Each structure stands twice: as structure tokens, then as C-alpha cells.
Amino acid sequence: MFLAGLFLLALSGAPLVVRAQEDLFPVSIIHMNDFHARFEGTDWSSSPCSNEDECIGGYARVITVVKQLFEDLKESNPIYLNAGDNFQGTIWYNIGRWNVTQYFLNLVPADAITLGNHEFDHGVEGVVPFLETIKSPMIVANIDDSEEPTMQGKYNKSVIIDKYGRKIGVIGVILQTTYQIANTGKLKFLDESETVRAEAERLKNEHGVDIIIVLSHCGLEVDRIIAKNAGPLIDVIVGGHSHTFLYTGENPPGPDTPRDDYPVEVIQDDGHKVLIVQASCYTKYLGNITVYFDKAGEVVRYEGEPIFLAHGIPEDPDIVNELAPWKVDIDAIGKREVGKTRVTLSKSDCNYEECNLGSFINDAYTYSYIKSTPYDHPYWTTAAISVCNVGGIRTTLNKGALTYAHLVTTIPFGNTVDSFDIRGKYLLEALEYSVEKSYDEGQFSAANMLQVSGLRVTFNITKPVGERVVEVLVRCQKCEIPEYEPLELNKSYRVVTGSFLSGGGDGFTMFRDYKENTIIGEVDIDVFEETKYNLHSYISNFIQSIKKMEIKDIFFLTGIVFQFELIRASSCLQISLIFVFICTNLLQISGTDMIADAMYRQPKQKALCINILIRTL
Description:
This is Apyrase. It contains 14 helices and 31 strands. By secondary structure, it is α+β, with helices and mostly antiparallel strands. It has two domains: 2-329, Purple Acid Phosphatase, chain A, domain 2, CATH 3.60.21.10; 336-535, 5'-Nucleotidase, C-terminal domain (5'-nucleotidase,  domain 2), CATH 3.90.780. Strands 1, 2, 3, 12, 13 and 14 form a six-stranded mixed β-sheet that branches. A six-stranded mixed β-sheet has the order 5-6-8-9-11-10, covered by helices on one side. A five-stranded mixed β-sheet has the order 19-16-23-18-24, sandwiched between helices. Strand 5 and strand 6 (166-174) form a beta hairpin. The chain is globular and about 80 Å long. The termini are far apart. The relative contact order is 0.11.
């Protein structure tokens, strides 16, 4: 009864059966996108849920609502669409890959599904078994697979759904630049608008289809372009990729802030109206819109809104039972506690400024090379600079205990932490590229923003593209004590980053094309887990060998007096400089305060941190 009331409210109280009214034909579109392996409920930041009373979303709630909507809207021709990116994002995918994904999606098959870029995270060979086993019609119109024979014949450009003799065409489309952000082999990706237009014309001319829905994994801004340019035959775009929450009205439910109305209306030059919908990501919401078409297939009106999958929505018992045996193996690995954080390490700011989560990741990257530098090495480290792409940072790490599943959800892609030499001019080019694109015209939010360690970069984003970097200071690597120096364009620098970025991912082709002397490092998740143990051991080994301490300097921080000094140790070792890392947002790992070659800054709070460098001679 509660659910029925909720769904009727979501339809704004309008009558559900209107086939005869005004000769209109209703189509109720139930849609989800960017599932990203959220088989279980999550907290409000889409991380693994530690408090069962606060869990939202999850696949069992999705199916509860899908089933209920199909019942409530059965007179309005309901269809269920999935806009891609079902792979990747939690430990469920890391362990079960395509197999666990197809298994659960097949329990309640969508009427159509398209591919997202993350379906290619393990290459063409990683998506082919999924295509071979998924029961839903897989549709994507703008892929040329002529040089990838294993993909051939495993999907179609579109599907026709018949409802009471009325034909509804659904065309799939994926971002043309997918090859830049995914491992797509020899596949070619064609212009989105042109291929959608061509397929829409084929559906109309060969099959008489006059209601056409585009199932898109291109992102809201590209969907706007498709809506404007793909011709008068398309009516609705059901989108994904940009994780966009759309909502009309005040007091939107759930954790997300709306980017625009639900639906977005685009009016073509001839007056034809195209609607765009999207339902955020990570099963926080399920899209729900009923569109009324006239006899010519033109949109007359619509109603509905996305449904927040709150904790109060019960989980489908059949799905819960199916999840149980898989969950045993998942929990054995994922619920292992690996540490604690005294503050939230937030993803929310990472697209437009330095964020403490980005700093944590990059500092772990650089530390993985600091710890492997021999004690008798002439320089303090073999690599002093690190960068990572914000697209690789998936969720916030909330204050409190951290499990292995939390880490995998935040950095799920299994990159190796590689290092390479590159000239300063190409490093500058990468920094310029990182602030070139913006998701939102109203507020700067760089799609490819680089988070950094060992770099101090000043941007002026009001300047033209290619001229936005004002100053770059680089932490020296070939030195005994690290200092920051101006970037030299012809100087070679050792840079640490993930293998995706090193290989030119997200359009950073300058790394792929101009890097030299590449060293393949450890897998990123291992780097983060090892950092706390190795760093604590690294410091403790020296402290145990201290014979003498003389007080030279006194620092007053957070009301506590700390006294330190140059320390002479046994075996002719000298710790030539120690700065104790003390900060209001100090990270605590397994009960031990983490001391690192790092600064975790929270710009809004102006948190004070002191950088620490341990140097042995």
C-alpha cells in the first residue's frame, strides 16, 4: 500500500489510462543508468553501507520498484530501459566481473540495454561473454566492429517494441570518444547524431515506426546535441554516462542536487520537441516518466519524476535470496577492515579544486616509490610527482572504519601504479588539458581535472583554453631535501600515475606518446593498503635506533607543544630532517596515527598540516 501511494504520487495524480482520451497513446518509460555493480544497498555517498538502517538503493530495491511500476502502469504501456555502465564500481564486479552482472540483470531483463564505456574496462574480451549471455536486446548503433570479429553479430542498432499494435523503436548509442576512455581494441565509434538519424529513418521507412526513443550512454551535454541534430523522428532520449540527476520542482528527494528539469526539453529548429531524461547513478534513483503521443508520434505531454530508492522501500525477496550465496564470498574479502579515517575524504570537490581524497591517492602513489628507494640512493626518492584523473576516483571515503570494499569502491579499476620520464612541456600540456573541458557551463567543473602530489599549480580558468595554467612549481626529485622549483619545459621529470592515464586514457595522449623509461608498479589497491603498514614500520625502525635527542625547535599546534630536533641515530645514520605530520584531519590507520610524506588539505576548512620528510644519510 505504501509503495502504491508513493508511485501514484510520483505520477502527479494524473489519470493512468488515457489511450482514448484525446486519442493519445501513453508510453511509460522506467529507466536506470550507471548501475556500476551496486548489487547491495549503499550509504548516501554510494559507498558500502555499514549501517543497515541507513542503506539506500541496491539492485533488490530497483527490482521492487520496477515490478510495482509495471503493475501500476500496466495500462500505459510500460517499458524498462537500461542505459549502460553496469560493469565496475564495487567489489562485486572485481570478483564476479561480467558473470555476476549478466546473472542478476537476466533475473528481470530490461526491454533494451545499451553499452557503456565501463563495459570495456577489461577490453573487448571482457565484454563479449556478457553480450553472449545477456537476455535483454543489446543495442548500439554507432560502433563499427569490422576489425573486431568477436563483437560481430552480438548486438543490434535498435529494437522494435510492439504495444497494442503501436511500434516503439529504441536506438542505442554510445559516446563517440569512448575509445579515449576505455580499452576498446579495434572498434571504431561513429558520430552520435548522424548514426541515430540514419537508424531512425530506417525504422520509419522500413517498419513504419513513429515513436522513437534513443537509449544513450553519451552524457547530458552530448544528448542535448543529439536532440538538436538527429532529426525530427526522435522523441525521447534516455541517457546515462554523466551521472546526472534531473528533477523538476522544490525539495528534491535523496542525496543529489538537480542539474536541470526532468525531463529536459529541447526544441528543434522546426519546432519538434525532444525530451531528455537521466536518473543519476549507483541505484540511488529509478527514472519514471509517462509520455503521451498523438497519432503522428509527436509528444503532446508527459508526467512523472525519478523515484528515490530510500531505505523505506523494501528489497525484493527473490533478489535478496539470489544475492545471498554470492554475498558469502564477497563479504569474506570485502568486509575485512583495513583502516580508519578521522575525517571524510571527499570526492565532491575533485572536479574543480584540490580535494583531500585526491591528495591521499596521489600521496600513496608517490610513497610507493619513496619506500622502494634504497637508503644509499643519492636522491631522496626515485619519483617525486604524481597525478591521477578524477574519473578514476569514484566515491567518497566517509569518516570511520575503512574496509577493503570501501577502497575498491573508491578506486575500482585495478590500475598499476606506473612511473615514467616526461619533459616539462608535455607535463604542462597535460595540466592545460585537465582544465580544458567543463561539464557545466554555469559553474566550472573540469571533466578531466588532475589531482596532484609534488606539484603546485595555479590556474586561471577565465583565460582561453590552452592559456589557463598561470604557474607550475615542481617538487625536485634529484635532490637530498625536496624543494619546489619552477617547471622547466625542456627538463625531464619522473611522474607516477595509474596505468590508464599512462596509456593515454581520458584523452591524456601526451603521456602515452611522449613518456620514456616506463616502470610498471604495483596494483593501486595494494599500494593503498600497504601504505599504512610500510610507513609506520619505516618510521618505527628509525625511532628504535635513536640514541640522542636535542631540543632545538618548539612548535605550538592545536594547543599542544611538540618538541623535536635533528636526531642522531646509531650505525652512522642520521635523520637529517623530521617534520611531524600533525593535522586536524590526521588519518588513523589500524589504531596508529598515519605519518606520511603528504599534505591532506581541506581548502574550505583551511586545515593545517605539516609535511614530513624522513631522510637517511
